[in-house]
Specification:
The strands form four sheets. The protein has a five-stranded parallel sheet, with helices on both faces. A four-stranded antiparallel sheet has the order 8-9-10-11, covered by helices on one side. It has a three-stranded antiparallel sheet with strand order 12-14-13. By secondary structure, the chain is of the alpha/beta class. The chain has helices at residues 11-23, 34-41, 60-70, 85-93, 106-120, 153-164, 172-180, 189-202; strands at 2-7, 26-31, 48-51, 54-55, 58-59, 76-80, 98-101, 127-130, 133-136, 141-144, 147-149, 169-171, 209-212, 216-219. A hairpin with a 4-residue loop joins strand 9 (133-136) and strand 10 (141-144). Helix 6 (153-164) packs across helix 7 (172-180) and helix 6 (153-164) packs across helix 8. It has eight helices and 14 strands.
């Protein structure tokens, strides 16, 4: 499924676009301000961004720049009434992958979404996220609400295993097996306890990492 964030303050236009794209089996989440969209992006990375230029709390190109500074390949399409050549050039300069001028045909918009995704693939698949923690798998980087978190190799692998199994309770034995034993690094339960404590400390004690007493751990979204 194509998971879209649509940043648009005109409720009527947003509703029409959302209804049409959801008929095409897309998931569309609408944000009426740049601030709401930015907050959501700190917690979850969608497949693609649809972005208006004129917003109540600023200009879309500023959000586009911010997105590019954090996720260089996340697909972005401007949907805007601003059709002047200078605006279009500015949109691409600030990081947009495509630029659609209002009014537009819904069929054409959907075709351009598909065309863009054929070129980029599903960039969102390189990211794992949970409650503001984002892992960039291509760059081996971890962020908490846009702040880069420096983890040791063991801490990174522990977080990665929990992220990949988000929503499932994982026993301590299984974690030891998959994070350490499988690589020939045989350690005891205390190593897992210490590594988990350090990981939690670096991530500001995230509520999304749950301790399941006498069993193990579970990672799940709480917001």
């Amino acid at each position: 499924m194509i998971d879209l964030y649509y940043i648009e303050d005109d409720a009527n236009i947003a509703s029409i676009v959302k209804e049409y794209l959801e008929q095409k089996e897309c998931k569309v989440t609408i944000f009426s301000t740049l601030a709401k969209a930015k907050k959501a992006l700190k917690d979850y990375i969608p497949t693609l961004i649809l972005l208006d230029w004129n917003m109540p709390d600023g200009r879309g190109d500023s959000l586009c720049q911010w997105i590019r500074s954090n996720w260089k390949t996340l697909p972005i399409i401007f949907l805007t009434v601003r059709g002047d050549s200078k605006d279009i050039v500015s949109g691409f300069t600030n990081g947009a992958d495509d630029y659609v001028v209002k009014p537009f045909e819904l069929e054409v918009l959907y075709s351009r979404i598909l065309a863009l995704l054929r070129r980029t693939g599903n960039v969102a698949e390189q990211y794992l996220s949970c409650d503001g923690i984002i892992m960039d798998l291509n760059r081996w980087m971890v962020f908490y609400h846009s702040e880069e978190i420096n983890l040791s190799a063991a801490e990174y692998q522990l977080l990665l295993y929990l992220m990949k199994n988000k929503g499932r309770t994982i026993t301590r034995e299984k974690i030891l097996e998959q994070v350490w034993d499988i690589k020939g690094n045989y350690v005891n339960n205390n190593t897992l306890t210490v590594t988990m404590k350090r990981l939690r400390d670096k991530l500001y004690q995230p509520a999304c990492i749950k301790t399941i007493r006498s069993v193990g751990y579970r990672m799940e979204d709480t917001i």
